[in-house]
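Sample intake sheet
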Amino acid sequence: METSDTTENKFRVTHITGAQKSILLQPKYSDLKPVSQLLIVYAFLAVVLSSCSATRYAAKQKETSISSINFLDEYVMPLNQSFQQTVVGGLSGIDYDPANNQYYLISDDPSQLSPARIYTAQIGIKDNKIDTVQVTGVTFMLQQNGKQYPQYRSDKTLKADGESVRYNPRLKNLIWSNEGERLLKNGDTIIVQPALTFISTTGKFLDTIPMPAGFHFTKTESGPRKNALFEGLTYADNYQTIYASLEEPLYQDGPQAAFEFDKALTRILKFDAVTKQNTAQYAYNLGAMPVKPTVENDWNVNGISEILAVNNHTLLVMERAWAKGHDDHTFIKLFLVDLNGAENEINNQGFIQNPPKPLKKKLLFDFDTLNRHIDNFEGITFGPKLPNGHQSLIFCVDNNFGKTQTQQFFLFEVIP
């Protein structure tokens, strides 16, 4: 910005170079009367304060109440479409940036088909229907050394298994969850510890949250199970708190959910988003498998696939069940969980030895009541307001890059 005084020295002519190409005339402050100077100071303070207020408002986390949800629409994206030389699929998490009307979608591809990545997308909603889902960009998550995660087949020791992603508009960065890896086969051991990692919107590594004791993979049946870790993430308390949910129980917390067994206990962890310290852990009671598997194996599951903060004390918890022999259907139930008065189990080293007091949960919606195909839903986010002023709720499917699965998006209306 270049400036020059006029010959009368009463006004300063400010030439704004670049695209604007305009000239502004500004009175010189020292030549104004005291009253005028005071008015200018007040005006300046008003602008600054209103700007700060607008910034706080723009970054304020959405809070609401939910009595029920109403299904509005289904949108099916073409399977495994290509975008900028990557395969779009495995969409395990979704989050919404309202300021830019943009969605973040994390793929759980462990750099097998394309490098570990997060997509941006536009989801058009018109007349309470999903009009389009258009991928607009792709960002590769980077390691601390600045490199992309290597191809999984060539190096399994650096596996990136992205399951959830959340955007922080205050810091304009992302946090994503990595389930890691635990392979014990033929005497070989491959362990990649789970992680909750902060990155920039360009994928640059920023920081990680330290894992609490008992949440590291081991060679023994202690700690987390393979493929059963941090499936869910959400911000709360105006982005001052992070909640992370385990899909299934730790070994020391007891057995997994099973058909006719509804006593499985997993955990939801609370972290201070600033200090990154774990401040609380809560016991969550998983429901029983809704059907009997034809074959008993490790892939039969009922666990938490995602969580979403409704307000400072209420979480939406999505339970997802799958059973062998029922391969074409996933069982999805959405629960409301109230954290008020919840027992903090942070010092409980094992629920088998020390039975906890689980969180209270209330069934909000059973996807089976829709009487339609339900695929592997893993992501959930609040979207934009609907024409009637109610909040929208959007779900996305992890299609596992399978040829027989459906890349669904569901749109719901939140009834306060």
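Comment: The first helix runs from residue 34 to 59. The two ends are 51 Å apart (CA to CA).
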